Amino acid sequence: MAKILAVLYPDPVGGYPPDYARDEIPAITGYPGGQTTPTPQTIDFTPGQLLGCVSGELGLRRFLEDRGDTYVVTSDKEGPDSALDRELPDADVVISQPFWPAYLTPERIASAPRLKLAITAGIGSDHVDLPSAITHGMTVAEVTYSNSISVSEHAVMQILTLVHNYMPAHDWVTAKKGWNIADSVSRAYDLEGMDVGVLGSGRIGQAVLRRLKPFDVTLHYCDAHRLPKEVEGELGLTWHPDARSLASSVDVLSIHTPLHPQTQNLFDDDLIGAMKRGSYIVNTARALIVNRDAVVRALNSGQLAGYAGDVWYPQPPPPDHPWRTMPYEAMTPHVSGSTLSAQARYAAGTREILECWFDGRPIRPEYLIVDGGGLAGTGARSYTVAG
Q1: Domain count of the chain?
Q2: Which listed residue (136, 220, 334, 364) is catalytic?
Q3: What is the pLDDT of residues 123-173, one digit of tens each?
Q4: Ramachandran bin of 358, using left for φ above 0, alpha for ψ from -120 to 50, beta for the remaining angles
């Protein structure tokens, strides 16, 4: 029998919820483009429950223990005596989430001779050292598309939050108990008529573009894989061959590219300096794509009018992380892809991956990042490895 180790985020401060704001969530069976939602043989949870925290257990305990497997769930993942490090050496499977990642470093992977499968409950497997996973003979899989729409909706929300100066206005009428219209609107604009670009036009990037089209903006994108001409025509897209061309052409830039060696630290002082003065950046991809301190400098100088991020490094960030206190921000604690709607899908997808792996059946190619000694499936399109 197998040992499965899940690293999930901590429970709510007030305890696991006895009930929820809504009685149900919409039933979705497929995504744009034809991919179906996860299809496990069954599930042991009610869609709409809080599944991504420790007590939620991704709804997997009954399934795994009925098989005779050992299921260990923890949120303790940092430090040499963390539960992650204590439990990892004899684990066969590690499950993690992008929102509370179990960083599978080369050292941790080397310490786990039995480790054969790493599952991301969600999208984005950059917390796994992929070259080490390949060398170790592991399979790395994620629940592709499970929370793509969740993230795209969040990105559009953050764009509007920045451009309309929502955060300071909200602060004036709540925390400050005031009614300061002049200060609230002194940095507020309409999105209409602006040039808006996305870096990365995969599932999330395309969903953002489609949701922005009705705002009467001019849309731009940059991706190594150019979209079909009919899609460019339908959305009125301008393609840019590189990030600098895109950044210098838009008022708002939303980042939706994976983190890999070519994108790490991409938005440094030089690239941000190539943008129009008073531009906005929204980052729901990965924090290390932008240079932390360059963002702070650009906000303080006025080169950027605002930065909204849902992603940090490390996660969780330390209390003194400068993004907690920088001006003109609209930061969130990596919640975009963990709505209750998304949790139902990525919990079901995690179970589907486990069922396939236990039964010796192929895992869906769109779920695969590493398999068979190299990048595979979605991983072959979205990631690169050094060397």
Answers
A1: 2
A2: 334
A3: 999 999 999 999 999 999 999 999 999 999 999 999 999 999 999 999 999
A4: alpha
Catalytic choice (108, 240, 286, 364): 286
Query: CA 27 → CA 208, 344, 366, distances in Å?
Result: 22, 10, 21
So what's the pLDDT on residue 387?
54
CA neighbor of 327 nearest in space, from 172, 167, 178, 164 = 167
> Tokens at residue 9, please?
């985020």
Identify whether residues 115 and 153 lie together within a single domain.
no
| Active-site residue, 315 included | yes
Pair (210, 140) in one structural domain: no
Do residues 104 and 176 both lie within one domain?
A: no
Mean pLDDT along residues 9-32: 96
Do 235 and 345 reside in the same domain of the chain? no
Please give the residue range of the domain that contains residue 67.
Answer: 3-146+338-376
Residue 86 falls within a domain, yes or no? yes
Domain shared by 54 and 136, yes or no: yes
Per-residue HEC secondary structure of 62-98 comes to HHHHHCCCEEEEECCCCCCCCHHHHHHHHCCEEEEEC
> What's the predicted TM-score (pTM) here?
0.95
**CATH number of the domain that residue 203 is part of:** 3.40.50.720
Determine, yes or no, domain membership for 382.
no
* Band (2; pLDDT cuts 50, 70, 90): very high
Are 241 and 271 part of one and the same domain?
yes
Q: Output b/e per residue, 123-135; b: 16+ Cβ within 10 A.
A: bbbbbbbbebbbe
Q: Which of 291, 303, 315, 343 is catalytic?
A: 315
Annotation marks residue 147 as catalytic: yes
Alpha helices in 136-268 (DSSP H): 148-163, 166-173, 181-185, 203-212, 229-235, 243-247
Distances (CA, A) of 23 to 19, 26, 340: 9, 10, 12
